[in-house]
């Protein structure tokens, strides 16, 4: 029995890597999408996002020295300055939310009240730079802020030490578009390889009478399905690794692979072939089954937050997205790989596993092994 | 089977296939309608019939792919309707489904081993490749082969578990004449090895050439069975004497008192022969100007058998 399942897995696998179009759709196409979307929406510019709150106002007007400091920062051309209103009581929380909504870096520089006065009195003034040390861009950004600050202090009072940058470490989810996108591409790839793979091996193999032939041998339907699922798991693992590696090499996307990632890959390798099997049973002809698979995967891909956050969708679409299995795979992968949110990852993994069990069982029951 | 003999144990009978009053209905459509036949060890048995006659339905019942709606069928002594028996049947039969294709991107050898791995024991792939004469295509992917070669891969795959009986469902349909001959060659080799073969076909010449026993099936019923010779003798009708290129003129030159003669295919004269008439007719022809014409006696074929039994020709049904 082991060797039968192994034979089926290796048969599928050989058929996969010997087909150029399979390689294209499962490997090259996702990577191409990453490069394309990464280039279009990725970092936007090479400037660093920096939120800035100037609390040193008199009336409604920034004090001269604080305004001067802002101007100098701006003139470096190194930053995309996003001004945070001085009235904002909790700038850090505001920045976290705003940065995430706009896919910007979460870094905040606060010029405190009394900045101008402190410098004038000859004492050392301090600004606070909030940023995540682990963020790749932070080191260079902090370096630039430091040197700008030192030279500004030297210019106004000839005392470079007069102005101190106090670094405050924060844990950010400094999510760029590409960080958001990579788990989506993984989800999309699992979706398409799973659904189309199952339609192919259960629809086309039926047309070619391969399934009929196998049904006349001691092979059981269960073994056949296990073989297919095993193959899908191998493929899903390969996709995951290739895409993550690529994302890291090109865009510096760092991902954590944890138990939830494994759970989600297992879920996806059951769920999507399960959906494909259900399809292949309702639409008998391989070609129409292919069309049906397209009709299902495409809307799912767009609605389930593969390319952009679901928050941006109209209300109805958001509701529909809640019924899309891919939604939970995508969200779970993001929680697990990028956001490091174990609680949410767990929820999504459990939902995905539940859906997976449902679809693979349904597909297996529906699948005709013997009689057509 | 005589009642007082003990029934042989499953798997040991010389009756490889025993079918009694078997039927299969799809809704109102009766695809197989109460057929009975026996296939003995070492026989090549042909199920001959036009499209939709019920050949595939019958074969697939024997292969445990479909459930009969009536009657009984045993393969190698095992009952096709019993679940536990089905497992035994599957181990011991070889199957080439109608329109079978192996896996496109596996090579000939890989395909043989792929299907072989489904069984506990498999024959050596290279031996099978030799049997079906595919040595130089051994490492070629299945999809790159021509139709005839593909069918030979199918044959090799159907033999991979060294089966006690091989079911070949229309093994030559759609092949060109040469490829058909090649497939026939493989079946003949199987026969000479003493294999039991059950094949279906709608080609009369194929059944006549390959089969020891032919059953003609039409509309789900067996309308005649026997060796090709028996069928032809019983249902084929008269032999025909043909005088080539004699033309209208030749018709007038025929001696008196012959059976009815007619003109066929641009000038051939055809005379239906009753038994024992041949010598006297030939002698009387010798006295006429027709004596130097080419003369030939044509035996009826299974085509004629089918025509006489059904009033139709199989080939008219298309394929
Ligand atoms: N799965 C099915 N469901 C309904 N009707 C069927 C099914 N399979 C076969 N039939 C019908 O049963 C009859 C016999 O079909 P079968 O396939 O056994 O014929 P066949 O002799 O193999 O024909 P062919 O030469 O075309 O292969 C036909 O009328 C066919 O339409
Ligand atoms: Mg058929």
Descriptive notes:
The complex is a heterodimer of chains A (372) and B (319). Chain A is elongated and about 95 Å long. In chain A, a hairpin with a 2-residue loop joins strand 2 and strand 3. Chain A is built from 14 helices and 7 strands. Chain A has 2 domains: 4-41 and 176-366, no CATH class; 48-169, abc type-2 transporter like fold (3-Layer(aba) Sandwich). In chain A, helix 1 (2-17) packs across helix 9 (221-251). Chain A has 372 residues and is α/β, with parallel strands linked by helices. A 5-stranded mixed sheet of chain A has the order 4-1-5-6-7, sandwiched between helices. In chain A, strands 2-3 form a two-stranded antiparallel sheet. Helix content of chain A is 66%, strand content 9%. The model of chain A has no long low-confidence stretch (mean pLDDT 86). With 319 residues, chain B is of the alpha/beta class. Chain B folds into 2 domains: 15-234, P-loop containing nucleotide triphosphate hydrolases (Rossmann fold, 3-Layer(aba) Sandwich), CATH 3.40.50.300; 238-299, Alpha-Beta Plaits, CATH 3.30.70. Chain B is built from 11 helices and 14 strands. A 6-stranded mixed sheet of chain B has the order 6-7-8-3-9-10, with helices on both faces. A 4-stranded antiparallel sheet of chain B has the order 2-1-4-5, with helices on one face. Chain B has a 4-stranded antiparallel sheet with strand order 12-13-11-14. The A-B interface holds A 3-4, 7, 11, 14-15, 18-19, 208-210, 212-219, 370-371 and B 63-67, 87, 90-91, 93, 95-106, 110, 113-115, 117-120, 141, 157, 161. Bound molecules: adenosine-5'-triphosphate (ATP) and magnesium ion (MG). Magnesium ion binds next to helix 1 of chain B.
At a glance:
The complex is a heterodimer of chains A (372) and B (319). Chain A has 372 residues and is an alpha/beta fold.
């Amino acid at each position: 029995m082991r060797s039968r399942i192994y034979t089926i897995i290796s048969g599928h696998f050989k058929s996969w890597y010997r087909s150029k179009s399979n390689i294209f759709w499962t490997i090259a196409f996702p990577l191409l999408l990453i490069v394309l979307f990464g280039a279009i929406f990725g970092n936007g510019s090479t400037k660093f996002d920096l939120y800035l709150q100037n609390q040193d106002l008199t009336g409604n007007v920034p004090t001269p020295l604080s305004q001067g400091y802002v101007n100098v920062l701006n003139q470096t051309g190194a930053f995309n300055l996003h001004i945070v209103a001085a009235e904002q009581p909790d700038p850090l929380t505001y920045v976290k939310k705003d940065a995430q909504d706009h896919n910007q870096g979460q870094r905040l520089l606060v010029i405190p009240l009394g900045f101008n006065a402190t410098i004038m009195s000859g004492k050392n003034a301090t600004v606070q730079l909030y940023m995540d040390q682990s963020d790749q861009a932070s080191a260079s950004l902090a370096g630039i802020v430091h040197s700008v600050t030192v030279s500004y202090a030297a210019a106004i009072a000839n005392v470079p030490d007069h102005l101190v940058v106090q670094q405050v470490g924060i844990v950010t989810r400094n999510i760029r578009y590409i960080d958001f996108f990579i788990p989506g591409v993984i989800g999309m790839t699992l979706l398409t390889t799973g659904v189309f793979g199952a339609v192919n091996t259960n629809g086309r193999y039926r047309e070619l009478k391969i399934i009929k032939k196998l049904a006349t041998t001691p092979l059981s339907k269960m073994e056949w399905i296990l073989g297919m699922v095993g193959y899908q798991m191998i493929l899903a693992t390969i996709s995951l690794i290739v895409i993550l590696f690529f994302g890291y090499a090109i865009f510096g996307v760092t991902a954590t692979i944890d138990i939830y990632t494994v759970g989600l890959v297992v879920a996806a390798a059951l769920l999507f072939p399960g959906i494909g099997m259900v399809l292949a049973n309702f639409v008998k002809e391989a070609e129409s089954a292919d069309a049906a698979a397209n009709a299902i995967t495409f809307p799912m891909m767009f609605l389930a937050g593969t390319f952009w956050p679901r928050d941006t969708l109209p209300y109805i679409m958001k509701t529909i997205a809640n019924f899309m299995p891919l939604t939970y795979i995508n969200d779970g992968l993001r929680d697990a790989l990028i956001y490091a949110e174990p609680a949410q990852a767990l929820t999504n993994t459990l939902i995905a596993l539940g859906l997976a069990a449902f679809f693979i069982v349904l597909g297996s029951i529906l699948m005709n092994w013997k009689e057509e | 089977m005589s009642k007082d003999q003990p029934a042989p144990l499953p798997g040991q009978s010389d009756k490889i296939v025993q079918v009694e009053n078997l039927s299969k209905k799809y809704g109102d459509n009766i695809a197989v309608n109460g057929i009975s036949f026996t296939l003995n060890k070492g026989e090549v048995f042909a199920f001959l019939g036009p499209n939709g006659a019920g050949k595939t339905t019958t074969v697939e019942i024997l292969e445990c792919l479909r459930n009969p709606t009536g009657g009984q069928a045993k393969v190698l002594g095992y009952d096709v309707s019993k679940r536990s028996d089905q497992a035994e049947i599957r181990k011991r039969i070889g199957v080439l489904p109608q329109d079978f294709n192996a896996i496109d991107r596996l090579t000939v050898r890989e395909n043989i081993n792929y299907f072989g791995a489904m069984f506990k024991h498999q024959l050596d792939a290279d031996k099978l490749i030799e049997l079906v004469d595919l040595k130089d295509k051994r490492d070629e992917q299945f999809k790159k082969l021509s139709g005839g070669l593909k069918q030979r891969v199918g044959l090799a795959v159907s033999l991979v578990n060294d089966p006690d009986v091989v079911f070949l469902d229309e093994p030559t349909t759609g092949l060109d004449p040469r490829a058909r001959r090649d497939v026939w060659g493989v079946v003949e080799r199987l026969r000479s090895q003493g294999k039991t073969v059950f094949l279906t076909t709608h080609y009369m010449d194929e059944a006549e050439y390959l089969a020891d026993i032919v059953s003609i099936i039409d509309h789900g019923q067996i309308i005649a069975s026997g060796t090709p010779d028996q069928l032809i003798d019983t249902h084929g009708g008269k032999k025909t004497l043909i005088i080539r290129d004699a033309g209208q003129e030749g018709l007038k030159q025929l001696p008196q008192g012959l059976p009815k003669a007619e003109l066929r295919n641009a000038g051939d004269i055809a005379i239906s022969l009753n038994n024992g008439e041949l010598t006297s007719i030939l002698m009387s022809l010798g006295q006429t100007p027709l004596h130097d014409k080419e003369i030939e006696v044509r035996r009826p074929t299974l085509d004629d058998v089918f025509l006489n039994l059904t009033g139709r020709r199989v080939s008219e049904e298309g394929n």
